[in-house]
Write a structure and sequence with these properties.
Helix content is 20%, strand content 36%. By secondary structure, the protein is of the alpha+beta class. The chain folds into two domains: 72 residues, Ribosomal protein L6 (Outer Surface Protein A, domain 3, Alpha-Beta Complex), CATH 3.90.930; 83 residues, Outer Surface Protein A, domain 3 (Alpha-Beta Complex), CATH 3.90.930.12.
């Protein structure tokens, strides 16, 4: 059995879970998520816990077992607590601002870059420390939006200028040797 897949998923108070065949709907205080999983994997609610079981030990079923349990757990954590990614803006003159719900980035281009948040995503900007917090209830969307923001001006290896994740380390390179 999969170590991840055999663990039951606790359903916290305030979260409503509905299973219809291979489709799961999770509703909580932050929002609502729906997802359809493989028909081979059985999803059952027992005693306030979600149990994921697989029919056989074939490679495909084993792979889907742990994945399905992790995705259901992420759905429940997302609608009850939410997820966030923190980005840091580094560079002279580089900064981020909020214009309503839109994120406005000044990153050394001839124009400011305006980033419109998708549904379920919110931004927080700390102008003093130049941090951008991307928050939402869908883990996949939060990660994708953070990656899209980072892609606008990824950190470069010589001076470290650009947008990076707060826990990311940039491998620095030496510049020109210069005159001796």
């Amino acid at each position: 059995m999969s170590r991840v897949g055999r663990m039951p998923v606790e359903i916290p108070k305030g979260v409503d879970v509905e299973v219809k065949g291979s489709s799961v709907r999770v509703k909580g205080s932050k929002g609502e998520l729906r997802r359809t999983f493989s028909a081979n994997i059985s999803i059952v609610i027992e005693d306030g816990k979600i149990i994921v079981q697989r029919p056989s030990d074939e490679a495909q079923d084993r792979a889907m077992h742990g994945l399905t349990r992790s995705l259901i757990n992420n759905m429940i954590v997302g609608v009850s607590q939410g997820f966030e990614k923190v980005l840091e803006v580094n560079g002279v003159g580089y900064r981020a601002d909020l214009d309503g719900k839109k994120l406005v980035l000044y990153l050394g281009f001839s124009h400011p870059v305006v980033f419109e948040p998708p549904e379920g995503i919110s931004f927080e900007v700390d102008t003093r420390t130049r941090l951008i917090k991307v928050s939402g209830y869908d883990k996949q969307v939060v990660g994708q939006v953070a990656a899209d923001i980072r892609k606008i001006r990824p950190p470069e290896p010589y001076k470290g200028k650009g947008i990076r994740y707060i826990d990311e380390t940039i491998r620095r390179k030496a510049g020109k040797a210069g005159k001796v």
